[in-house]
Amino acid sequence: MDLQERIKAFAKLGDFLSQFSKDTIQKKENIEHNEIFFDGFKHQLKLAQENNGWFTDENMRFSLEGWSKLLTEENLETWLKPYNISNVQPKLVAIIMAGNIPLVGFHDFLSVLITGHHVLVKQSSNDKHLIPYLAKYLEFVEPQFKGTIHFTDGKMENFDAVIATGSDNTARYFEYYFKNKPSIIRNNRNSVAVLTGNETEAEMKNLSEDIFRYYGLGCRNVSKIFIPKNYNFDAFFNGIYHWHPIIEKAKYANNYDYNKAVYLMSEFDMLENGFLMIKEDPSYASPIATVFYEYYDDIEQLKQRLKADVNKIQCVVAKGFSENEIAFGHTQKPELWDYADSVDSVEFLLAI
User: Fold this and answer.
1) Over 90: is that where the pLDDT of 86 sits?
2) Which keywords does the record carry (predicted)?
3) Is 86 helix (H, G, I), strand (E, B) or coil?
4) Coil/strand/helix, residue 179
5) What ranges in 142-193 are assigned the alpha helix state H?
6) 82 vs 97: CA distance, rounded Å
7) d(CA 172, CA 49)
8) How crowded is residue 111: how many other Cβ atoms within 10 Å of its Cβ?
9) CA-CA distances (angstroms) from residue 46 to 27, 53, 55, 56, 156?
10) Mean pLDDT in the chain?
11) Helix, strand or coil for residue 170?
12) pTM attached to this predicted model
């Protein structure tokens, strides 16, 4: 199977996923093997939601819509053009996936297969229904994928390299356990936003997407904002208000109530609007239903601070702050070449 055949197969998967948008599920004509897979995938979405209360219909379909837009022949070719993907000797690459948001491990899965390697996947129990089904679809549209995709619940053995994602604690375990294998080991990261007080109403509304999408559970979710002295929070609260129905979700509401009680009993100063709390705190990782904030005096000093903490930060949302900043509202819309932790996984896979 050559690269172009693999690209075409993933583009067909993108066509299949285009039937599942964040607004609706609609069966289309001329989608290969749709009669076999369409209704079955709807069932997998139902199972995924029953297995994990954070995986709502809306959030899963948001993820699927994003992937459908990424998995086009044009996008895939643009992504892979800088690399020399020829004469790759297939290796077995193990992937240990997180399960915090839907399909969070799919980019690693795609990267391994698109570069011509075989994949051995160990999924999180929180996200175990979607990728195996999509893998089966890939095998139907391109039978040469059969025998290259493996899933396991047990011990991972006989692999040549590994990509593992987990917490700071599990990352230390991974680094020790896989010390003799080529590896990419990912740990906890969070995203921040740098505000000036001059943001437009639209930008603040877009920032709310970076905060609340997936209930804030992703490493690309903004969990902390940096603000100038004497910042007026009215613009912030006005911009996020349209997300207020999120409090109707039981799991989110339970976290909101719990964290609010903790803050009140501890007599912490915080502001809240009935569905989100903001608290001054030097940490990057905030609890669910909470965003931390910190004041800055000097923008250059803040740049140096974030540069020093680069290994703790996934995204910086801002306007005119730095060359690597992400626009408001775009943290959960990464391109194929936006690598987690800024580690080029394709380059890694071509070097093993």
Assistant:
1) no
2) NADP
3) coil
4) coil
5) 168-177
6) 27
7) 31
8) 23
9) 17, 11, 10, 9, 29
10) 96
11) helix
12) 0.95
What b/e string do you get for 44-82 counting C-beta neighbours within 10 Å, with b at 16 or more?
bbeebbeebebbbeebbbbbbbbbbebbbeebbeebbee
> Can you identify the CATH homologous superfamily of domain 190-317?
Aldehyde Dehydrogenase; Chain A, domain 2 (3.40.309.10)
Q: How far apart are CA 175 and CA 182, in angstroms?
A: 10
Q: Looking up tokens 């839907």, which residue turns up? A: 102
Task: Using the structure block, give the residue that is written with the tokens 């979710």.
Answer: 221
Each domain of the chain, given as residue ranges in start order, spans 3-188, 190-317
| CA-closest candidate to residue 126, choices 158, 103, 110 | 103
**Three-state secondary-structure class, residue 251:** helix
The Cα 219–Cα 190 span in angstroms is 5
**Length of the chain counted residue by residue:** 352
Report which secondary-structure segment, H or E, holds 16: helix 3-17
Query: Residue 148 is which amino acid?
Result: T
What is the average pLDDT across 237-247?
97
Reported as a single tens digit per residue, the pLDDT across 2-56 is 999 999 999 999 999 999 998 899 999 999 999 999 999 999 999 999 999 999 9
In this predicted model, what pLDDT tens digit does every residue of 172-188 receive, in sequence order? 899 998 999 999 999 99
The DSSP call for residue 90 is -
Among candidate residues 249, 195, 261, 188, the one with its CA nearest the CA of residue 218:
188
